[in-house]
Predict the 3D structure of the following.
Amino acid sequence: MENVAREIKDLYTPVIATISLVEQLTLSEKRFWIKLPRNQKLNHHPGQFVEVSIFGFGEAPISISSSPTRAPGFELTVRRTGRLTEKMHQLGVGSQIGIRGPFGNGFDVQRFKGKDMLFIAGGIGLAPLKSLIEYTLDKRHDFNRLIILYGAKNPSEILYPQEINEWTYRDDVEMHITVDRPDAQWKGNVGVITTLIPPLELDLENTIATVVGPPVMYKFVLMALKAKRLPDVNIYMSLERRMKCGVGKCGHCQINDSYVCQEGPVYPYTRIKELKEAI
Amino acid sequence: MSARKKSQKPKVAFFDFTGCEGCQLNKLNLENDLLGILELIDLVEFREAMDDKAEEYDIAFIEGSITTPSCVERIYDIRRRTKILVALGQCAVSGGINAMKNNYPLAQVQEEVYGKDKYLFPSMPAMPVRAFVQVDYEVRGCPMSMPEFLHVLKSLVLGRKPEIKDYAVCVECKLKENECVLEKGMFCLGPITRAGCDAICPSNGQYCTGCRGLVSNMNKNGAIEMLKQHGFSVEEAIKRMAMFNTNELVKEANWGNR
Amino acid sequence: MNRQAKDISEMKCCFFDQNTTKQFIEFLMSKAKVIAPHRKGEKSFSFQETHNPEEVVLNYNRTIQPIKKFFMPPRETLLEFELNGKPKVKKPEIKIEERIFLGIHSYDMKAIRLLDFSFDRDKPEANYFLRRQKSVFIGIAYEPDEYHFAQDLGIDVYDTTGFSLFMVPAEKGFLIFEVDETGHRYLQEFGKGLPLDAELQYERPEPTKKLKMHYNRLPQIFSHVYDSPVWKKVAERCLGCGTCNLVCSTCYCFDVFDEVNLNIKEGTRERTWDSCMLNPFAQVAGGENFRPTLDSRTRHRLYRKFKYLTDYSGELHCIGCGRCSYFCPAKISLVEIINELIEDYNRQQQHAAVTVS
C-alpha cells in the first residue's frame, strides 16, 4: 500500500476554469459557456455532469448541457435554487470557477447508433438531454428519426428558445412542445408532457426513449411509454440526487446499492426497475 | 481605495428588545474576533437609538422578544428599513425565557412585577420576532451560539445563505467524541434538541437542557419512549425545555398525553 | 494485507508481566506514535495518542469513536483557497507518519479492512490511504459484553488478521503472539519477553449465539425483507439523531461545506462525518427529500451493512462492535432488529410453503 497511496490522484481539487459567455434563459435559469485552462477538452459524454466550485460558496453537481462535439469548452445550464447556484447567477464573463469531472455515466451513444431517438424532457431536464440532442444532430447520419418532446410549465419557462426554434424548422427533427399553463400568445399544445406521447407513431423495436425531468414526471412518462408498448430495454433515464463528492464516497446520492455519481445519472430502465428508491 | 472599500461594507445594525443582554455580552466576549468583525462591517446601530436619522440597513440583528405594543411598532419599522433580518438568541427566535410569563394571566404577571404602577407599563405575551415580521435567519440558543453567529455574519457579508443545522445535538457530541451524558446516567435533551451550539454543555460535563428548541420533524413518540427508557419523566423534560421555548412547546402541547 | 493469519496456537509466543508490558509500550513509543485506548470521562473509552503508558487501558469494552478517526478524521480540510482576484486553491499536505495502534479488538481491525475496500472502490481516495499507510496494529483479545456480537458475524476474538502482534490477557500479564515479520522484529529488538514456562493455556469464549441465523445467510435474508413491517416498528422509537452512524466503525459518508475566515479573503473546504439517518441527508437544493422517513432511512442504514456493499465486496459491512446499540439514546438494538427481520423472513417462508401445499 505504501507505494500506491502516493500515486493516487487527488479527487477533490478542482481545476480553475473561466466563464466565457453568459445568457439569461428564463427568470431563474442562465447558461454559461465554460473554458478549461489552455482550452483543454473536457472529454465528456452526453449525460455526464461536473462538480462546480465557487470558493466560499461550496460545490454543486451540474449536468453538462452541450455536446462533446462542440468542444473545446462546454455549457452549463443553471437554475437558481441553492447557495452555489445563486452566486453563479451573479457571475459574469471572465469570472473563474472550479471544475471537477466529468463524472458519472452518460448516455451509451454507441448503442443508439442507427436508432430512432425519442427525447422526452420536462423543465430543466432538457439541459442534460440537449447534450445528447446536439450530439445526434452533429452526427446526424448515425441516427434515424429524432423526436423531441418537451414540456414546460409556461411559455416563459421554455429553456432554449433559439435551439428549439432551430429544431422546429429542421426537416429531420420532429419537435413537439407543450406547456401546462399557456399565456395569451401561446398557440401550441397545452397539457402535461405525457399528452404528447399517445399520438406518436413509433417503430417500437428501433426506438430509444431518453427521459429527463423532475422527479414526479418519470412515473407518468413510463406509464405512457408502456401503453405504447415500447420495450423496457429501449428506455433510458437520468436521475437527480443530492451529491457532494461526485466520486462514489460521500453517500448522499445513493439509490439503494447504486451511487448515482458512479453508475448514473443515466440508467437503463431495466436497472431502475431493480432500484426501489429510484422513482 | 479605503473609501471605496468602506462604502462596500454592509451596513449592519443590532437592536435590543426584551432580553437579558446575555447575547450582547457574549458578542463582546469574542475579544480577538471583535476587531475583525468591525473591519468587516459598517456598524450603524448598536443599542436603542432609533431616531429619524437612522438609515437603511443591509443586515439587522434582533435580540430579545417582543413584549410591549411599542416593541411591535419598532420591529415593523426595522423590518421596513432592512434587507436582511436575523433573530439572535432564543428570546428573539422563540420568545425565550420571557415567554414563561405566557403561562400565566397577563394581569397577574403585571400585578406581580409592577404592582400599583402596572398601568404605566403596557405589556403583552412575550412573542418571537417572527410572530410579527419575516425573519430571514435565526441564531438559536440561550445565550446564542457564538460560532454560529460568526458563521451567519460571515456568510451574509459574503452574500451567501448561512448553513443552519437541523439535526440533533448528538451529532456534535459524537463528532467531538464526548462521553454520552445519558450513558453517565444523567438527564439529557440532546437527542431531540437542535444542534449548532457545538454541544457546548455536554462538552463541559453538563446535560443538554434543550435551549435551542426541538429539531424539526421530531419523532414525538420516540422522544417520550427515550425519556422513559432512561427513567426521566416527560413532564420534567417539558419543564426544562419550556424554560426557553414556551411558545414552541405550546404547539407540542399534547406531549405525553397519549 | 489480505493474507489470512494462521491460528495463534501455531504462533511463537512469550509472556509479559504488567511491568514488562509498560516497558514494551515505552519501547513502542520510542519507535513511533502510539495510539491506544484511554479513559474518556467516567465510563467511556477513546483511542488517543499515548503519552504515558500508565494511562493506557487495555481492558476496555469499546471506544466511542472507532479507529477510523485516524484515517478519516471527523472534520478535515480538503482545500484551502483565496477568494480575492483569481481563485487560488491549495490542497493541505497530509502528514504521513508511522503509527502503532495498540490494544485493538479483532472486529475493529476487520472494520479497517472493510474501509480499505470502501475507499478503494471506484476511485481510490488519497486522503484515506495517505493516513492509512505506515500503520502497525497490535491486537488484543477481549471479553465480549452484552452488546458485542462480532463472533456471530464470524469474527473470532482471536482473529489476528491484519495485526503484527496479538496480546491475550493472562494471569498477571499478557501472552504476546508474533503474527508477522514486523511483530517479530519488535519483539527481537525489545528482547524482554519471558519464555512460557507452562503449557499454553487460554480460553476461547463461548460463541455468543445472539443472532438467530448463521451470518452467511444474512445477505439472503436482506433480499426478502425490504418491505418488512419491522422498519416502521423500529422507526417508531428512532429519534433520527444520527448517533448510530457517527459511532459506526464502517460508515464513511460525509458532508462537504465551505467556511471563510473572518477577513473574507481566505477560506477552507471542510468535510465532516455525516449520517444517512439525518433528515436532510438526501435532500436536494430544490427541496425534494429522496429518503424522507425514518423507516426508509433505518432500512438504508442496515442495507448498507448487510446487502448493498456486501454484494460488491462479498463481506458483511457490520463487524458486531455493538457501538450503534450501546450508544443509541433510544436503546435500539441492532441484534434485535436483525432477529426480527429473520423471524419475518421465516414467517414469509412458512407462508410460502403453506400456499404451495
Q: What stands out?
A: Chain A touches chain C through 48 residues (CB under 8 Å). The radius of gyration of chain A is 19 Å. The first strand of chain A starts at residue 15 and ends at 24. The CA atoms of residues 27 and 125 of chain A lie 16 Å apart.
